[in-house]
């Protein structure tokens, strides 16, 4: 995810989305279902982490530019 333009006064809407409140539940306790669920949960985590990291970078760049 690219870092938004630092000159923007407001955090871009695509960077202000919350992470999911809940993780998906496996369809059963069978190994294939657990594996699918683990992969889906990991993908959700990494999407949220990337979004969060991009938001933090956006904020830090704005703070650095405002302090100069």
Any descriptors?
single chain; mainly alpha; 1 helix; 53% helix
What would you say this structure looks like, in words?
The protein has 68 residues and is an all-alpha fold. 53% of the residues lie in helices and 0% in strands. The chain has one helix and no strands.
Helical run tally: 1
Average pLDDT score: 86
Radius of gyration: 17 Å
Distance between the termini: 26 Å
Order of helices and strands: H
Major β-sheet profile: none
The chain-level structural class is mainly alpha
Amount of beta strand: under 5%
| Unreliably modeled segments | none
Count of DSSP E strands? 0
Which descriptor suits the 3D outline? rod-shaped
Quaternary arrangement of the chains shown? Answer: single chain
Helix content, binned percent: 40-55%
